[in-house]
Design a protein that fits this description.
Blueprint (H helix, E strand, L loop, with lengths): L2 H22 L7 E5 L9 E3 L8 E5 L8 E8 L6 E7 L8 E3 L8 E6 L3 E5 L6 E4 L17 E2 L3 E3 L9 E7 L15 E5 L6 E6 L11 E3 L8 E5 L8 E6 H5 L7 E5 L10 E3 L8 E6 L3 E5 L6 E6 L4 E2 L5 E3 L9 E8 L8 E6 L6 E6 L9 E3 L8 E14 L2 E13 L7 E8 L8 E3 L6 E9 L11 E11 L19
Antiparallel strand pairs: 1-34, 2-3, 3-4, 4-5, 6-7, 7-8, 8-9, 10-12, 11-12, 12-13, 13-14, 15-16, 16-17, 17-18, 19-20, 20-21, 21-22, 23-25, 24-25, 25-26, 26-27, 28-29, 29-30, 30-31, 32-33, 33-34
Length: 499
């Protein structure tokens, strides 16, 4: 064998081995899609391992049209394949997002989730069986017309108050679903404390202003002295309300008369939960919240004084949470991306997306993209430049001319705003349909270091509030999972705190 031939053979072997090595490093995304025809969703997904395979699974609330029972009120999906692990029926829509805690002591977290018509479940995470429910079905009860039967939203864990060794649950109870727009005489809402083990009502504290409540409460020790305080909002689209702070001890006494008014909702109220985040760098969490009437408000967590307020010119409503990130300048103060709908619900014309400087409250950027939605934004580095970007689920009208006939449909896509203020680009294109209020989830389901995006939409291209053809999808991106800075509705553990 000649020396040249040896060189040629060695070259081809080296090339082959190099090619094999390169193929082993080719990114192969894990993706799946699950469609459930009879329901839609306004709940946001959470990720938790339910089948002990080392891969986090997905739990989400669902439902048909309002007042309609469904066999698929809560869904648990296998994080690896998207297959349904278990499902739980419900008499109405399950709209809250779940929190998880192992109360059965089997090593698998159990699920706590609420919804309309006084639905609140504690579910065995391994199989979906009900451990308890707040108000079991009873043929003698009119769940839809009885004005004392209200709704539950996203709950919070609080320290064990009934001395059974498990944290207990704080949640908002309010909102009469039969009330029509403009109907101002509505039932008073309340904060409730429930035993996580039994569902027993430990405390029931009516709203201090006598108004309804949709806002999920947030619990925090602002002064780091062991005394927990609760931030909650009252009012809604038509009912004036306020943002309040109360001692958890007063909630336990069932008396919120000493609650402090932090912000006036003016003609409307507060629906989206507040965000707790330090923006004046005094090491105490401040309060940043959207009011329904289209204001982004920042309140000092130490003094409860207004830090700043931003409001667009014109009539805008909002129902989502602001997303925090470092977008403006080189300072250490986080900034905020949030969206506002032009015109009052249900007559929203379009949506304006804004970036606000967290230090000054000044509007830095705004852009018009999409129609009505109240899913909240999430934050990660999608452009791989070391900077935070904003991901949004955008509803839009899709037009088509077929054989001379002009038709209009509804579509939903995932868009990214680079650094919260760049030209938006399409990240994930979905099929026709809408996402009404489900915030995408940024996580790493299989702990392989790559970022997973879990998102949902309702596949009806014609009806905005159809609540059918729910699609839940997982898309894995060639981006590090560590780049997700604010990846869940209400934050990583559902406590609405940005660290």
């Amino acid at each position: 064998m000649t020396k040249n031939l040896c060189y040629i053979i060695a070259f081809f072997i080296t090339t082959l081995l190099f090619g094999i090595a390169c193929q082993s490093f080719i990114f192969k995304p894990n993706t799946w899609s699950q469609r459930i025809s009879g329901v839609g969703s306004m709940s946001s997904p959470v990720a938790i391992d339910l089948n002990k395979d080392g891969i986090k699974d997905i739990v989400i609330g669902a439902g048909g049209k309002e007042f309609s029972p469904t066999p698929e009120g809560v869904l648990a999906l296998d994080g690896k394949t998207g297959a349904i692990l278990w499902k739980v029926p419900a008499r109405n829509q399950v709209v809250g997002s779940a929190i998880c805690q192992d109360i059965t002591e089997d090593g698998i977290p159990d699920i706590f989730i609420g919804g309309r018509s006084a639905i609140f479940y504690a579910l065995d995470g391994s199989n979906g069986k009900k451990i308890w429910e707040f108000l079991p079905d009873d043929t003698q009860t009119d769940y839809f017309n009885d004005s004392t039967i209200l709704n539950f939203y996203s709950p919070q864990f609080i320290p064990d108050v009934d001395k059974d060794g498990q944290p207990d649950i704080l949640t908002a109870y309010g909102g009469f679903i039969k009330a029509k727009p403009g109907q101002l005489d509505r039932p008073k809402g309340a904060l409730m404390v429930l035993s996580s083990q039994t569902g027993q009502v430990i405390a029931n504290a009516p709203m201090p202003d006598g108004k309804e409540i949709y806002c999920s409460p947030i619990v925090h020790d602002f002064q780091n002295n062991g005394k927990l305080q609760v931030i909650f909002g009252t009012g809604g689209e038509d009912i004036a309300g306020g943002l309040f702070q109360a001692n958890l001890a007063d909630v336990m006494e069932g008396n919120l008369s000493k609650a402090r008014l932090l912000a006036d909702g003016k003609a409307k109220g507060f629906i989206a939960p507040p965000l707790l985040i330090d923006i004046n760098l005094d090491l105490i969490k401040d309060i940043v919240v959207n009011s329904v009437d289209g204001r982004l408000i920042a309140i000092d967590g130490q003094s409860n004084q207004l830090l700043w307020e931003m409001q667009l010119s014109g009539t805008f409503d909002t129902y989502n949470m602001p997303a925090p990130g470092y977008f403006v300048g080189e300072d250490e103060v986080p900034d905020f991306f949030t969206s506002f709908g032009k015109g009052p619900w249900p007559n929203t014309e379009y949506t304006v997306h804004t970036l606000v400087d967290g230090k000054t409250g000044q509007l830095v950027f705004q852009d018009t993209l999409g129609t009505f939605q109240y899913a909240s934004p999430v934050v990660a580095d999608f452009t791989n430049d070391g900077k935070s970007d904003v991901l949004l689920a955008i509803n839009a009208k899709v037009t088509s001319d077929l054989k001379g006939s002009h038709m209009s449909f509804l579509g939903n896509n995932l868009y990214v705003y680079p650094n919260g203020q760049g030209k938006p680009f399409l990240l994930v294109k979905t099929t026709l349909g809408t996402n009404l209020g489900t915030t995408p989830l940024l996580t790493d389901l299989d702990d392989d270091g790559y970022l997973d995006v879990v998102y949902t939409y309702m596949g009806d291209p014609v009806q905005f509030y159809s609540f059918k053809d729910l699609v839940i999808e997982r898309t894995e991106l060639n981006r590090p999972a560590s780049s997700a800075k604010w990846g869940n509705y209400m934050g990583q553990d559902g406590r609405s705190i940005f660290e």
